[in-house]
Amino acid sequence: MPLTDFRTLGRSGLVVSPLALGTMTFGPGPFGADERTSRAIFDAYRDGGGNFVDTADIYSGGVSEELVGKFIRETRSRDEIVLATKFGFNASSSPLTAPRGRGGNPHAGGAGAKNIHRALEQSLKRLGTDYIDLYWMHVWDGVTPVEEIVQTLGNLVTAGKIRYFGFSDMPAWLAMKAATIAAERRVPGPIAMQLEYSLVARDVESEHLPVAREAGMGVLPWSPLAGGFLSGKYNRADTGGSGRLSGPNPFGNSKFTDQNWAILEVLREVAAELDRSMAETALAWVMARPGVASTLIGASKVAQLQSNIAATEIRFSQSQTQRLNEASAPLPTFSSSLTMRGLRSMLFGGHEVAGWNE
Ligand SMILES: NC(=O)c1ccc[n+]([C@@H]2O[C@H](COP(=O)([O-])OP(=O)(O)OC[C@H]3O[C@@H](n4cnc5c(N)ncnc54)[C@H](OP(=O)(O)O)[C@@H]3O)[C@@H](O)[C@H]2O)c1
Questions:
Q1: What is the pLDDT of residues 86-122, one digit of tens each?
Q2: Whose alpha carbon is nearest atom 24 of ligand 1?
Q3: 85 Cβ inside 6 Å of ligand 1
Q4: Residue 321 — φ and ψ, nearest 5°?
Q5: What is the CA 194 to chain-centroid distance, rounded?
Q6: Residue 20 in contact with residue 61, Cβ under 8 Å?
Q7: Is there a smaller number of Cβ atoms within 10 Å at the N or the C end of the chain?
Q8: Domains defined along the chain, listed by start
Q9: SS3 for 156?
Q10: For residues 199 and 284, is the Cβ–Cβ distance under 8 A?
Q11: Is there a catalytic annotation at residue 59?
Q12: Parallel, antiparallel, or unpaired for β 192-196 and 82-87?
């Protein structure tokens, strides 16, 4: 089965599939999937051998967690599944949740201990379980001290309410600091990062991926198809249709840039050579990137999920990888310039010395 090429997540004993099922689409909403379709997507993922399911407290205002919990109960698969959910966005007034009347409670969001405990209790209830396998900080709030985040999440591991924790959407320095504090104090630290990463979003390569490698954190790319853009179903002349990025949408039209259209053309060529869909090809590229442990796939239809699972079969030639890498290469940053070719040789008397983890 394509999804049983199991691996451990970061420097941990958590065993996961190469593709994780993202359930942001589960539940009501213009880009969502109703209960019947969500169940079929869940079943198709499980039929492929997948064991890693990702949700969040705010997805569809909590309905995604409720559906995931229900499907796990119905299939009696709790022991087999690595269940991941997230805290951080405000439960009372998030732009991603339906308005619920009274909003604006500052204790219903962020990474402070008070909100983490509140959010976890609510997620456990909606999921109908008494522990989370991987608890994500969805987004850094910019104010809570790293020490408090590590202590709160580490204590929850010790208490058995969560098995592991990870960080999503945070600066790289924060993850490194958390990992260092945890290592020095000999307490549980973050084992994974969840980051936007695709052929059209590679800026995490300059700081985040080196931190993940140094700190032993597995990387989970989100939006590996850039919200559907890399499936090739949009074109310059017509960005309409019925997909998530069609017309006015909460994700904006930031993907429709000249540079991204150019990347899409190279992807189209490589996909044609492989006789594969562009979506599968784009997913296979992310999955093959160094440091990527498991890639989050999203789908609004079962057929999309089934096609995306087939990405696990793709093997690129050297030339195909090179063309995709070159077409999508991010602009150099100050950090990436420090690892440019030739600099090391200059520092080591003409020798390209290899590092221990390269
Ligand atoms: N940590 C974070 O901040 C964060 C942020 C975003 C997502 N995530 C996680 O990552 C998961 C995946 O993210 P994502 O949904 O943005 O991933 P994505 O793969 O970039 O986009 C998925 C969307 O693309 C379209 N699509 C998927 N497969 C397709 C195919 N084969 N052909 C044509 N269209 C296809 C579908 O939308 P349409 O059919 O509507 O076009 C689908 O809902 C989420 O479910 C969530 O778990 C995390």
A1: 999 998 865 554 455 555 889 999 999 999 999 999 9
A2: 228
A3: no
A4: -60, -45
A5: 4
A6: no
A7: C
A8: 7-331 (3.20.20.100)
A9: helix
A10: no
A11: yes
A12: unpaired
